[in-house]
């Protein structure tokens, strides 16, 4: 699985961090998403898919391989 | 939007207090871009399908109606709170790059991590409020005992506003959001008082700064050309107090009512509190009473929804709860599935304006539910569901009271 985020589109809502804290964080200075792990381990892939689905800004893309 | 379709009048009627309007299903199926008439007599377009609502809200070209837009009025000429009118100049209601700048300044206070850090304090506040409710004896109104005081004290703490002024905030925020309870003169007076209050609070923070959001925003604005201007600061404070208060308070009441309406739901959560996170989002999705008008967008360009072109100058009402029940997106959309995941509901909107406080609201709702399940597992409604009374007119939607016993 390969994850990318679009910081321009992100509105800083933090839903991704609530869903998958191992993979997403938010910058302290403006709340914009930071990707911690672009190739998450099997154990948190379900949570990453959830984060991508619920992101209100559609700023998270997941490519399954 | 063909000429022959009957005009739909907002707000739509419902059967029971927690039920969705039956009309939504017909609209989604046959008339997903419907012409609607508002209490003011003006008309607009109503969207009820998930994909349409999400597409419009995600488009950064459009925003809420701004002063100067020739948009549809919701309330009749002589009434309606600030939030229902279009001629207000709250300086945070802008769009595009300016809006993004504001969002990023304020957004940093509402990150998921910060909200998680507030959790222990919120839990203590919720526990104390529940203890007080229990001491007062059953039945009690859960909305008054817990729903209102918790979000107010949380947002006051965050902003650095005194909690003892909470009755005034409640009045001001009601006057902002109500459609028909106050006259135009009353809402204008409330706006002026609230604005003066916030100006004074900012002056006080400037003189004696604290750790709170307002003090920090002031500090950042000291450097020339940086941070927020004074009117922006004032309007930010006012918007956050209003936005962070009434919506969440009503949602706490509705959440408990929805979960107790069928007590097997409550029992399932008592048996497995790990469902709290998904249960909260499912309740947010299923809430059919977010206010009768939905979130508005003013079209400054034509917009096409699956072949239907809606012209420039139209005010579009995005039916968030109608979209949340769209079978095209949600399996068994009419059922409450406490473990639903993922749950991409639109209750907090979508796109660049999607709710800034959603991590806060989710945390508050989760804390309330956690505390109630743990301390009052025997909780039940003290009246039949049909006797719960919808609050009419409120732009955010709620129940008048949520009577409970334990
Ligand atoms: C359950 C409770 C809540 C619900 C259902 C809710 C819902 C919404 C919705 C639907 C929007 C989008 C409006 C639009 O697109 O025009 C919004 C925006 C907003 N909400 Fe919330 N909200 C809640 C709680 C909160 C809280 C606790 C705060 C906190 C401080 C807050 C602050 C805001 C702000 C500032 C905006 C404007 C964002 C912008 O325009 O960029 N909300 N909310
Ligand atoms: S959920 Fe989406 S909008 Fe929210 S912080 Fe994460 S990437 Fe940004």
From TrEMBL, chain A:
Keywords from UniProt, A to Z, are: 3Fe-4S, Electron transport, Iron, Iron-sulfur, Metal-binding, Transport
Organism superkingdom: Bacteria
One GO molecular function term of this record is: iron ion binding
Q: Which InterPro entries match?
A: 3Fe4S_ferredoxin (IPR001080), 4Fe4S_Fe-S-bd (IPR017896), Fe-S_cluster_ET (IPR051269)
Per UniProt, residues of the 4Fe-4S ferredoxin-type domain are 1-29
Name the coenzymes or cofactors required.
[3Fe-4S] cluster
The yes or no answer to whether the keyword Metal-binding is present is yes
Q: What's the stated role of this polypeptide?
A: Ferredoxins are iron-sulfur proteins that transfer electrons in a wide variety of metabolic reactions.
Protein name according to UniProt: Ferredoxin
Q: Which organism is it from?
A: Streptomyces doudnae
Give the lineage. Answer: Bacteria, Bacillati, Actinomycetota, Actinomycetes, Kitasatosporales
Automatic annotation (TrEMBL), chain B:
Annotated region (Disordered), positions in chain: 1-20, 61-82
Gene3D superfamilies hit by this protein:
Cytochrome P450
User: What protein am I looking at?
Assistant: Cytochrome P450
| Keyword set includes DNA-binding | no
So what family is this one in?
Answer: Belongs to the cytochrome P450 family.
Names of the cofactor(s): heme
Give a yes or no for keyword Oxidoreductase in this entry. Answer: yes
* Keywords for this protein: Heme, Iron, Metal-binding, Monooxygenase, Oxidoreductase
Query: What organism, scientifically named, is this protein from?
Result: Streptomyces doudnae
In terms of superkingdom, the source organism counts as Bacteria
Per its record, what are the GO molecular function terms?
Answer: metal ion binding; monooxygenase activity
> Sorted alphabetically, which PROSITE patterns does this protein's record hold?
CYTOCHROME_P450
């Amino acid at each position: 699985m390969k994850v990318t985020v679009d910081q321009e589109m992100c509105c800083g809502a933090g839903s991704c961090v609530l869903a998958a804290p191992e993979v997403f964080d938010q910058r302290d200075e403006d709340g914009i998403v930071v990707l911690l792990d672009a190739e998450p381990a099997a154990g948190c892939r379900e949570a990453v898919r959830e984060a991508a689905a619920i992101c209100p800004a559609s700023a998270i893309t997941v490519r399954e391989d | 939007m063909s000429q022959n379709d009957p005009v739909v009048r907002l707000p739509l009627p419902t059967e029971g207090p927690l039920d969705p309007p039956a009309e939504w299903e017909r609209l989604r199926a046959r008339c997903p871009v419907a012409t609607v008439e508002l209490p003011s007599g003006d008309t607009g377009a109503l969207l009820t399908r998930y994909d349409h609502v999400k597409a419009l809200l995600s488009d950064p070209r459009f925003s809420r109606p701004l002063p100067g837009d020739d948009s549809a009025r919701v309330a009749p000429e002589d009434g309606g709170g600030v939030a229902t009118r279009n001629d207000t100049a709250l300086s945070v209601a802008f769009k595009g790059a300016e809006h993004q700048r504001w969002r990023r300044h304020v957004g940093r206070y509402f990150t998921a991590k910060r909200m998680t850090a507030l959790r222990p304090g919120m839990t203590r506040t919720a526990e104390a409020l529940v203890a007080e409710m229990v001491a007062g004896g059953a039945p009690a109104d859960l909305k008054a005992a817990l729903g209102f005081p918790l979000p107010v004290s949380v947002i006051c703490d965050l902003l650095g506003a005194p909690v003892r002024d909470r009755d005034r905030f409640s009045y001001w925020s009601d006057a902002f959001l109500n459609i028909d309870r106050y006259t135009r003169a009353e809402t204008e007076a409330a706006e002026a008082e609230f604005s003066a209050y916030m100006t004074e609070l900012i002056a006080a923070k400037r003189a004696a700064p604290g750790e709170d959001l307002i003090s920090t925003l002031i500090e950042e604005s000291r450097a020339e050309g940086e941070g927020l201007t004074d009117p922006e600061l004032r309007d930010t404070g006012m918007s956050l107090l209003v936005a962070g208060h009434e919506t969440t308070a009503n949602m706490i009441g509705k959440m408990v009512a929805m979960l107790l309406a069928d007590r097997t739901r409550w029992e399932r959560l008592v048996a497995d509190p790990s469902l709290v996170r998904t249960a909260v989002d499912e309740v947010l999705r299923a809430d059919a009473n977010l206010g009768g008008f939905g979130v508005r967008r003013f079209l400054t360009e034509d917009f096409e929804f699956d072949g239907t072109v809606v012209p420039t100058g139209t005010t579009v009402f995005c039916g968030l709860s109608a979209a949340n029940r769209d079978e095209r997106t949600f399996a068994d959309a009419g059922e409450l599935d406490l473990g639903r995941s993922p749950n991409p509901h639109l209750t907090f909107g979508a796109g660049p304006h999607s709710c800034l406080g959603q991590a806060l609201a989710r945390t508050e709702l989760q804390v309330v539910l956690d505390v109630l399940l743990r301390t009052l597992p025997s909780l039940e409604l003290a009246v039949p569901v049909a006797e719960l009374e919808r609050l009419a007119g409120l732009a955010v939607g709620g129940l008048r009271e949520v009577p409970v016993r334990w």
